[in-house]
Amino acid sequence: MTPPDDEIREEIEAHLRLAITEKMARGASREDAERAARQEFGNVTHVAEVTREAGYSLWLERLSQDLRYGWRALRRTPAFTTVAVATLALAIGANSAVFTVVNSVLLAPLPFRDPGSLYVASFIPTNIPFELPPSLDDKVYVDYRRRATRLTTITGYQQQDVTLSNPGEATRLPCGLIAATFFDVLGVQPVLGRGFTADDEHPGSQAVVILSDHLWRTRFGADRGILGKAITIDGVPQVVVGVMPPGFDFPDASELWSPLSLPTSPNISTFLSVVGRLPADATPAQALAELEAIAQPKPPDPRARRGDRFAARVIPLKDAVIGSGRTPLLVFAGAVGFVLLIACANVANLLLIRSATRRHEMAVRVALGASRSRLARQLLTESVMLALMGGAAGSFVAIGGVRALLAIAPLDRIPRVDEVHVNGWVLAFTLAVSVVTGILFGLAPARSGARHEPQEALGQGARLVSGPHQRLRSVLVTGEIALALILLTGAGLMIKSFVRMRMLDTGYNASGVVAMSVELPSTAYPDSTRQRAFHAQLLDRLAHIPGASEVAAASFRPMSQVGVMGSLVVDGPVKPPDQYSVDKPVVSTGYFTTMGIRILAGRDFTPADRAGAPGVVIVSEAVAHQLWPSEDAVGKRVAEGTGRPGPVKWLTVIGVVSDIVQDGSLDRHSTVYFPYLQTATRWMTFVVRPASGVKVASAMRAALREVDPAVPAQSLETMDQSMMENIAEPVFQMRVLATFALLALLLAVIGTYGVLAYDITERTREIGLRLALGATPGTVLRMVLGRTAVLALLGAGIGMAGALALTRLLSKSLFEVRPNDPSTLIGVSVVLFLAALAAGYLPARRATRISAMTALLHD
After folding, report:
1. Mean per-residue pLDDT for 741-750?
2. Long-range CB contacts (within 8 A, 24+) of 644-652
3. How far apart are CA 653 and CA 356, in angstroms?
4. Do 594 and 512 touch, CB atoms closer than 8 A?
């Protein structure tokens, strides 16, 4: 290493003091001695510079020698080098791939001006059966924007899908509904045209829209003359006033933006996402206290239900954008980190074995004058070279790994997915991991290799002895098995959870059923008469599709991730519990038959249940048991709302059907079904059960175009696809964890095999003598497998303790499976134990075939 400046200065001063002392001993005065000593020594600064340059030159020369020697040593053992580099490439590449996603999603700042000062304000009810994103009621938003002082320049936004009718075929697009201050708060402005103004928010003003760069280029051919032209959105002409910069699609991959319009009726409310900037002189705690003071209704809001509870939050915008995506990514990062540790243990074992085979070489170098520190540095240089080679190959693995991760990731479940790519930070991470990894797995072999005694090594030839090396290799294998068991347990829990999901009795049989969702624009279908006419006409067209055996419709079908919930009033002495809420889908005649939902009592809806006829409903089994536990529900009366309705609002229960799984929570909901001929709705999903082997999707789309070409299908998929979309996130996590777990298992098996195979080589003389003295092959086999079993059991015990502690992180992703599920823990332990025995069987069989002559000749 280069001598530090302080050391050089101290050394020069020591030389001068010694020369001065000698001259003073000869009778010179101190002043004369100092002057003479400095004249003889020469220019101190020049000497320091020469010394420094010599240190650098020596250090670079030694490094060059170590690199050249290390490269020759690695080339002499191509099999070892290939296995080590391939192992590290897989592990480092997998880590770099996961880091690419983590860096883009969790670490990189949002692409806004001063993103760290952007905070989301939220005040939402906590005692509701579904989860709301961080948001504010529109009435609270208006008051908060007017009175808040801790968060400044507050803005609000929502997102909804809209229909773009021209130019080209009608299509559904995500649209951001934003306040006029939205772009100012984020610090992003259109690259063409202008943003919104306060006048654009006023009712009756000209409808305007801003396009994303992607939509402008793909749909409008990057026409700069689009500004000022009108396009039709949800049946309403809207003038294009701006185009956003490339890459901007906030919120939630929006393709266009329209001014936010708040409800004007005091009885109607909506929730908005609300963002503001936190000044440097304010804290999130101060902003939270202010939000609570402003948002808490005083007096209580008469619209609120009894027992409503609210929670106030002020969180960074980045946390709100990431949402629930943080935990899975951190789990993946931890899992792939375990894989890297296993790979390090594997390569460390390989290097320990290699250093043992090089004992004679190291002893000769020591005998010729090489210092032990020089030997350790040489061996450490070789391990870092291996790691850098593995890191270079791992960069290509990372590129493929990122593509694979994004390919199997569920759509729209990874936030900021468009920003995920390999960049300079990822390459720097790969380099850093490579260097640290090289040092990590190279320290023990380097320290061990430099401790060889030349007399022992040269005197005994190439005989290999056990001892500390064997214990260290055993510790590394035990650690590999423990880490592999933790990953296998996580993967096993996810697989078991997935199997439970797939085996779940949903209460309906929708196998093969094709569903097409449609939303009617309010401008073209403003009233219930036109909406029912459209639905009836499309149902008739779908019924005449060749191969369509059954046809029906529902306002929201099972697994649609949307729905309408509300409370009920019951006619009679029975009162629903506080906060009692039910799903309220609107369905057509024949819906229960088409979907395979059993009618347990009463009858289905008929065409006679139309507007003007007595109001009727059908309830699910859970509603019947909850409201009329010991009575027949058919004939009972209910009504919507929380207050006592007038006589004309009573709805008679005409049937009871089985409970079904309605959404992605996979829970069975209490449901009240309404006939579509008596209830207006602009949202409807049409379901067709085709005859066996018949494809009906294209015919369904054609039927929709025949009824109204300006109305696009929001989605068109089979119910099986819908089910998989609802469980896509846990399936994605299962696939990733299973991949890492299998890689960890493979590395652990290879490591176990390598250590046992080398142990057999070390003990060839001992085993041969045992066999010559009467030991049977079975005894030798049991001896080797017994050592394997001890390592496997010890590793499994440590791994099981780690699994019990770490698998709790997966609890939110598991379905009907506990994180400490004993059957999974036992099953995974058995699999790993058998895999370790299988890895030890081949070396054990080879040990039983050692002859006495081979043992005596073994050196």
Report:
1. 88
2. 644/569, 645/569, 649/615, 650/571, 650/615, 651/615, 651/616, 651/617, 652/614, 652/615, 652/616, 652/617
3. 84
4. no
CA angle 797, 803, 807 (to 5 degrees): 170
**CA neighbours closer than 13 Å in the CB half-sphere of residue 611:** 9
| Phi, psi dihedrals of residue 73, rounded to the nearest 5° | -65, -40
The pLDDT tens digits of the residues spanning 813-847 come to 888 888 888 899 999 999 988 988 888 888 878 77
Confidence band for 457, pLDDT divided at 50, 70 and 90: very low
Question: Residues, the chain, total?
Answer: 859
Kind plus residue range of the DSSP H or E element containing 290: helix 284-295
Query: Cβ of 108: how many Cβ atoms within 10 Å?
Result: 16
Query: Is 344 in contact with 441 (CB distance < 8 Å)?
Result: yes
For the beta carbon of residue 546, count every other beta carbon within 10 angstroms.
9
Contacts of 257 (CB under 8 A, 6+ apart): 175, 176, 177, 178, 182, 196, 209, 210, 244
Domain residue limits, the chain: 5-76, 115-322, 325-502+728-857, 521-710
pLDDT of residue 52: 54
Tell me how far apart the alpha carbons of residues 505 and 743 are, in angstroms, rounded to a whole number: 34
Tokens describing residue 199: 């006048």
Give the DSSP letter of residue 677.
T
- As separate numbers, helices (DSSP H) first and strands (DSSP E) second, the chain gives 25, 24
| Two structure tokens written together for 50 | 């020469």
> Is the full-model pTM beyond 0.70?
yes
Task: For 220-237, write each residue's pLDDT tens digit.
Answer: 989 999 999 999 888 889
What are the residues whose beta carbons fall under 8 Å from the beta carbon of 608, sequence distance 6 or more? none
Burial of 371 (0-12, 13-18, 19+ CB in 10 A): exposed
